[in-house]
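$ fold --in a.seq
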Amino acid sequence: MERNSIVLATPAELRVLVREAVRTELSVFAPKKEIQEILNEKQAALYIEQKPGTLRQWRTLSKGPAYHKKDRRIFYKKSDLDVWMAQGRKFTSETPDAPY
């Protein structure tokens, strides 16, 4: 991207862009710690800057990011969280174009 470029973005998209820019800058100074693709509820909540209870409430209300359930354990794919944050949308089980 050129220095004099104009970028049109929603607040959620801008948050993702800023977060990635900060991570890129910080990676120069800190050892690279790769974020795993599959996150548990606590890791996912930390990644999207929410509380685990908020994720539980969203699941009860059929909103929030897509998740996977194995027995009683809940998992989130990092890529699903990134897409959800970038779109600024909350998918429900009734959303016709939901990615799951």
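$ fold --in b.seq
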Amino acid sequence: MTYIKQAMVLRILRTDKVIPVIQKLIKKEKELGPEYITPPPFEMEKTYADSANNVPIIIVLSPGADPMAELQKLGKAKNA
């Protein structure tokens, strides 16, 4: 059974198992690959450099994400 067929069956029976199957499908595709499901590293220094007083930094949080340590490190580096 291909990953796409497996995902369709799981969508009906076990919706909680669909995301891992889709991730496997993306990893195995020649045109895609693991770089499409691996998030890039968050670089606070680069984000700060891209911001300005009229261009805010917006951080979208997800479960388990805590950017506070990075913010404090940046604050110490900038003497803020």
